[in-house]
Amino acid sequence: MVILGIESSCDDSGIAILEDGKNLLHNKIYSQTDIHASFGGIVPEVAARQHVSSLGDLIQEIKDLNMLNVIQGVAVTKGPGLAGSLLVGINYAKSLAYALNVPVRGINHLTGHIHAAWIENQEEIEFPVIALLVSGGHSELVLMKSHKEKILLGQTRDDAAGEVFDKVARFMDLEYPGGPVIDKRSQLSKSKIRTLPVTNIKDSLDYSFSGLKTSTIKYISKIIEQNGQLDDNLINDICYNFQDAVVEQLVIKLKIAVEEYKPKSIIVCGGVAANSHLRARIKNESAIPVIIPSPKLCTDNGAMIAAAAFYENAFSKESELDLDVFPSLKMTD
Ligand code: KG4
Ligand code: ZN
Questions:
Q1: pLDDT at res. 227
Q2: Element holding 77 (H helix, E strand)
């Protein structure tokens, strides 16, 4: 089946055409990062209005490539995310499905992130799977017995992992989003020492990152007080110190979950899965196969939405021309 996937839950407009869950015939992302960078974060109304023009351009491109006629179903993110941004995506999806006379289905963005792993690695992944989803809005550990059976094992009790990367970077006046720049600068650190605390909530697989965020901000303020200002070397060392504390917490809980639930594969996904330190540590320290989508499929994209629709067999159910958005949708909804 050839599925068109549309993603517009936050600040990336994504369109992809995926055949049989594995052949990516088309995959384009229009990122609004530069537009929001000057605000230091995403402005919901600006994001929604930008999706109107960028999704229009991306769909026009598919038309120009004569690819509209291969589409057999339209899958679109229905939540969670920003209501205005989601609405733009589902309205494009419904109109297109109506015009092409094919079904439309709403897809959960979170299961979309996990299903990105199957696009490039169908043969390697064996159930049960433990998936670690780490993005700008989510940090969740999930046990999957099949594509549709998911059990939430743990989640963040406060900030998401990506969110703290962005906030700590902002405090040091680094670019937005903070994850990629902290990742790059950590690699340049000469000291590579962690002194910041690693949160480890007892008897739970839940995460918590707000304490680390506060400690890091206090630590940076103290350094500025002592040194006058931050130089490149100090920033690189702080980035390493902070990143290592985030990664350590993610790895500790993942290891406990693996020990307890004995999965056959691990999937790491979401924007923070692009982090080089996290990727290396999980791959090096795991005895079972670890599947991490390539960086372009880790951050928000349309291909993961088409993949989730394919593997969850979404088109076995009726078309949803009356689809609404679900801004607070949960992983297991
Ligand atoms: O999945 P995503 O594109 O959007 C959400 O659904 O949230 O994730 C974006 C998040 C941002 O917080 C960004 O800073 C983070 O992923 N990120 C990274 C890296 N690349 C992106 N965090 C750490 N290291 C990276 N290399
Ligand atoms: Zn996402």
A1: 86
A2: strand 73-79
Residue nearest to atom 23 of ligand 1 (CA): 179
- How is 280-305 classified by DSSP, letter by letter? HHHHHH-SS-EE---HHHHSS-HHHH
List ligand 1's pocket residues with C-beta within 6 A.
10, 135-137, 162, 165-166, 177-180, 183, 270-272, 274-275, 299-300
Per-residue pLDDT reduced to its tens digit, 270-329: 999 999 999 999 999 999 999 999 999 999 999 999 999 999 999 999 999 999 999 999
User: For ligand 1, atom 22, which residue shows the shortest CA distance?
Assistant: 179
The three-point CA angle 33-328-331 to 5° equals: 95
Picking from 233, 296, 308, 258, the residue whose alpha carbon sits closest to that of residue 75 is 308
d(C-alpha 195, C-alpha 41), whole Å: 28
Query: Token pair for residue 135?
Result: 């993005």
Structure tokens at 283: 């791959």
Whether residue 295 is preceded by a cis peptide bond, meaning omega within 30 degrees of 0, is no
Percent of the chain with pLDDT over 70: 100
Residue 260 Cα distances to 157, 265, 278, 321, angstroms: 21, 14, 21, 42
pTM: 0.94
Angle in degrees, CA 67, 69, 73, rounded to 5: 100
